[in-house]
Design a protein that fits this description.
The structure is a homodimer. By secondary structure, chain A is of the alpha/beta class. Helices cover 35% and strands 24% of the residues of chain A. The first copy, chain A, has 13 helices and 19 strands. Chain A has helices spanning 83-96, 101-117, 131-144, 167-181, 202-215, 227-236, 243-248, 275-283, 292-297, 305-310, 329-346, 356-368, 401-410; strands at 4-16, 19-30, 33-38, 50-60, 62-68, 120-126, 147-151, 153-154, 188-190, 193-194, 219-223, 256-258, 261-263, 265-269, 287-290, 314-317, 385-388, 419-424, 427-428. In chain A, the strands form 5 sheets. Chain A has a 7-stranded mixed β-sheet with strand order 3-2-1-4-17-18-19. In chain A, strand 6, helix 3 and strand 7 (147-151) form a beta-alpha-beta unit. In chain A, helix 2 packs parallel to helix 3 (131-144) and helix 11 crosses helix 12. The first copy, chain A, is globular and about 60 Å long. The two termini of chain A are 16 Å apart. Chains A and B meet through helix 2, helix 11 and helix 13 of A and helix 2, helix 11 and helix 13 of B.
Chain lengths: 430, 430
């Protein structure tokens, strides 16, 4: 980790939400941290080893703010349902299997291996309610080299018995898990994970709020994904002004300031957030995990991401496997752009479609901020990088680097063997 | 071509629009034609060579009803435009290059190679206005093994000078081309290709109508893709009742009965067809090439495919490279399903989302009908097949064949090396 080296190639990263900087030159890493990007190597780095990737593209490894590890087993299947039906028919039955530690080990080894090979450098991951399986997932993620936050799911209603705990039990198991994993891992850490409001009683939410306070934990959950779900929340939490307010009441909707830092909150989806919720998302600094692939597959709708970006809300991308069928953040970027065009066409002509640069920003810096200084090659940022070889994409003429980057993403080079090397926090995964 | 053989594996093909038949057994081919699917090989075929593909999936090779060969060169780039801007900034400048035969040879060899490796067994292809380049494309397609209809584009207005001809010139060159290619190829044949109404004067349309009659040609063009385009058609063809009527006036909107058969018409997009146009599409037996990926990328909208299917209109899929960024029909299938869900959500709650089986049907039988008895393994159908090895998709448990098929499509096995063998009209491409 104290090693210093440079990668050479066509380095591309977001300078701002609307601009991608491209440099044919060197990205320098020292002790896992970026030391800047240079057209020619400065004197102080002249002796460092250089990995020359020729004409390849070098981009930040990407950040997946929302993915369900246990659902990876059935990714790409069961795509003809809406949310509540999908949970009952596809997600919950699979999640019940993770009571079996052997199954969990096998499944999570496949999952972590998949993430290792792909474009994801960092991820926020849902496990299941099972404490032991959650620890197994953390072990597998630690081995993968991908940096992660992993959450034991909390849920005390609205699911099959095999994946329910009582509020007391759920809280106790959470504490047990937190104590178990304390100090055990360097690349993975826990995140508090109430499944979603319809799956949690007031009592459970209250207990989790207390745990968050004691352990200084970030939080991840789901928000305003589907109209039917929102209606249900209205019935179950009449005391909440709106869905997000239900989390906020228990201190689980935004940053919690800690000694020298803050622990954060991610809310996946936010497809149907009303004005009050949008305002609160902004005020509380909540991260929206935009999951366009999932929102398409479950017929949920289209999140108004243009509005969120304009409002200064923190937005990153989530693959949401397995409601999202693919763990590819390249695919998720193109999904985000495509659905924003339909939002413009059918919902709001004032909401300009997302441009490629903006999707790239969300996949790198937007989500990266959750993990700190992540998602760029600016000096001081964590050194997370993908080396993309696009020579498999034949063309009768040379394309400029920005077009090659756009093409690499649209044509899914992350799943077709185009990622030739991957670094997370300065460590080379392959 | 007189060879008889059988493929062994998990054979999957559409029995109807809503049902996929799966048989672990044998698909028999004789002389390029399917002789049926069997759980065990009947006595009459007991001596034929069997290619055993073990647990692989065997499905019909797919049909791409709409793709632009010259645009393949910039696929996956220039995705931040709407139709008319995209034509001017991305498509037309590239198409001008095909005046250069060397460039055309290089570009079309890349294009044909791409189709050969992918899921496409048959395709209807736009070239450019250039006669020689169109013939080069046909030579490359002939070599590829993929069966195709290729069209020299006709356009005499609304484009840069380099890709315009006068009406007279355009008609003359078309006849020249038709005479040139007569009897030259076994796998490719010409199709009349007025680019779209805004690009053709009355005079040109009239001349093309005459050519169609003389040469018994099928037709391909674009229809009602974008509101701005439709408005332009209204101005340019005030005599037409609606966009499609403008084609119909010149005999280029539907089947033309010929000696012992019929030559057909494909209209790409049909996103904004009004009731009169929908009625005419049905009455005239026009094939709709549904191009959901393209319609997303160019912010065009969502074609009401559920309505077309319910109305008995012929519908197949088109990748529409390069407004569609990928030549993958697997991707196009999932795009079709996803956009139908947004159509249901935002436009018409009466239009049920497409199911996987329906998308599979459109990609095989729906588009296949354009080529005759194509898109299934029923006795008498052309023997077009893909062998899909999905072992790269690891899972902790065994999935049933229908789920494996859905997963193979959603997870793009066609572009990740999953196609292990491909047959078109009984010939093995690899």
């Amino acid at each position: 980790m104290t090693e210093t080296f440079a990668l050479k190639g066509n380095i591309c990263y977001s300078e701002s939400k609307t601009r991608i900087k491209t440099v044919h030159g060197y990205a320098v890493c020292s002790g896992g941290i970026s030391r800047g990007v240079y057209e020619s190597l400065p004197e102080e780095f002249s002796a460092v080893p250089v990995y020359d990737f020729g004409d390849s593209l070098i981009i930040p490894a990407m950040v997946d703010l929302h993915i369900h590890a246990p659902q990876y087993a059935f990714r790409g299947t069961g795509m003809d349902y809406e949310l509540m039906q999908w949970l009952c028919n596809a997600a919950f039955p699979e999640e019940e299997r993770y009571a079996d530690e052997e199954y969990a080990r096998r499944a999570y080894s496949v999952f972590a291996g998949g993430l290792r090979r792909g474009a994801t450098g960092r991820a926020c991951i849902f496990a299941t309610v099972h404490r032991r399986a959650t620890e197994i997932l953390m072990e597998e993620m630690e081995k993968s080299g991908v940096v992660s936050r992993v959450g034991k799911v909390n849920m005390d209603r609205g699911a099959p018995q095999g994946i329910l705990e009582s509020a007391q039990e759920s809280a106790d198991e959470t504490v047990h898990w937190l104590e178990d994993v304390k100090g055990r891992f360097s690349r993975t850490a826990p995140i508090l994970t109430p499944r979603f409001l319809p799956g949690c009683t007031d009592e459970l939410m209250h207990r989790l709020g207390t745990i968050r306070e004691k352990y200084d934990l970030p939080v991840q959950s789901h928000l305003s994904e589907n109209p039917e779900e929102i209606e249900l929340v209205g019935k179950l939490f009449p005391q909440a002004d709106f869905y997000g307010d239900g989390y906020d009441m228990y201190g689980m909707f935004g940053d919690r300031e800690t000694h020298g830092g803050s622990v954060r909150t991610i809310m996946a989806h936010c497809v149907w957030s009303d004005e009050r919720e949008v305002k609160r998302l902004y005020e509380n600094g909540v991260f929206v995990a935009h999951c366009p692939g999932s929102n398409l597959n479950l017929s949920s709708g289209i999140a108004p991401v243009r509005k969120y970006l304009d409002a200064g809300i923190r937005v990153g991308l989530g693959t949401d496997v397995a409601a999202g069928h693919s763990d590819s953040l390249f695919r998720t970027m193109t999904d985000a752009i495509q659905v924003s065009k339909m939002y413009w066409r059918y919902v709001d002509k004032g909401a300009a479609p997302l441009r490629f640069e903006e999707a790239f920003w969300m996949a790198t810096r937007g989500g990266g901020e959750f993990f700190g200084r992540v998602g760029g090659f600016d000096t001081g940022y964590a050194f997370d990088a993908l080396v993309i070889d696009d020579t498999s994409l034949r063309s009768p003429r040379e394309l400029p680097v920005p077009e090659r980057l756009e093409r690499a993403v649209y044509l899914s080079l992350d799943i077709t063997g185009g990622i030739k090397a991957k670094f997370v926090a300065g460590s080379r995964l392959f």
